[in-house]
């Protein structure tokens, strides 16, 4: 009973906002799901890319590679042993400053050098916690919104704490309803 409720929460913001985003097709392979070109403050070691795995299988990421396209071409190899769970996320942080703030596009290659995914060309000149992210996870459309690093892309409810609070309230509500009523033999 609790699980369907929790799964249903994923689509709550869509229902609230009236956006028909949930009818979009979701990729059938690991994708670049979100990226932060311009984190608050110094960008060195703080820029990151989020993968999302929409498939039902664990995917081995060892030997996969990210490559940038703007300015100096940077390449970041995913270490062997790395993997991503079904419906899971994986974060890549590059060495130093590797993602340009303007006109950047990032390409993902698998261990055989085949292109798996490529982001649209995007800019982020705000030096704050906003990032580019697919919405919903794995979909073709992108939004610029408060970052959701390693968690579901829900721009309307950006705080993981807020999401956690909703889940907690629903869980308590469902558990209370499912408890046997005492004193009514
Ligand atoms: Ca940013
Ligand atoms: Ca940057
Ligand atoms: Ca995210």
Average of the residue pLDDT scores = 86
| Percentage beta strand | 15-25%
Total number of helices: 3
Termini separation:
25 Å
CATH superfamily of the domain at 26-149, called what?
Lamin Tail domain
Radius of gyration: 19 Å
Helicity, in percent?
Answer: 10-25%
Short description:
The protein has 185 residues and is of the alpha+beta class. It is 18% helix and 24% strand. Helix 1 runs antiparallel to helix 3.
What does this structure look like?
With 185 residues, this protein is of the alpha+beta class. The chain has a domain at 26-149: Lamin Tail domain (Immunoglobulin-like, Sandwich), CATH 2.60.40.1260. The chain has helices at residues 2-9, 12-17, 160-178, and strands spanning 31-36, 48-52, 59-60, 65-68, 75-77, 83-84, 89-93, 106-109, 115-118, 130-134, 142-146. Strand 8 and strand 9 form a beta hairpin. The longest helix is centred in the C-terminal third of the chain and has 19 residues, at 160-178. Residues 1-21 have low confidence and may be disordered. The protein binds calcium ion (3 copies). The site of one calcium ion (CA) has 8 residues, from loops.
Q: What is the element layout, followed by pairings?
A:
Layout: H1 2-9, H2 12-17, E1 31-36, E2 48-52, E3 59-60, E4 65-68, E5 75-77, E6 83-84, E7 89-93, E8 106-109, E9 115-118, E10 130-134, E11 142-146, H3 160-178
Antiparallel strand pairs: 1-2, 1-10, 2-7, 3-6, 4-5, 4-8, 8-9, 10-11
Helix pairs in contact: 1-3
């Amino acid at each position: 009973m609790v699980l369907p409720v929790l799964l249903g929460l994923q689509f709550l913001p869509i229902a609230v906002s009236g956006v028909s985003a949930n009818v979009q097709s979701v990729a059938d392979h690991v994708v670049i799901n979100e990226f932060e070109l311009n984190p608050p403050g110094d960008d060195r070691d703080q820029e990151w890319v989020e993968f999302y795995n929409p498939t039902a299988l664990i995917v081995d990421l060892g030997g996969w590679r990210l490559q940038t396209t703007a300015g100096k071409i940077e390449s970041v190899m995913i270490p062997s042993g790395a993997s991503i769970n079904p419906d899971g996320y994986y974060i890549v942080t590059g060495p130093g400053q590797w993602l340009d703030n303007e006109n950047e596009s990032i390409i993902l290659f698998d261990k055989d050098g085949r292109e798996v995914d490529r982001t649209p060309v995007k800019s982020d000149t705000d030096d704050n916690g906003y990032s580019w992210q697919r919405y919903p996870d794995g979909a073709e459309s992108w939004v610029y919104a408060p970052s959701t690093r390693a968690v579901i892309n829900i721009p309307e409810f950006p705080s993981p704490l807020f999401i956690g609070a909703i889940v907690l309230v629903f869980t308590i509500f469902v558990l209370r309803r499912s408890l046997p009523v005492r004193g009514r033999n």
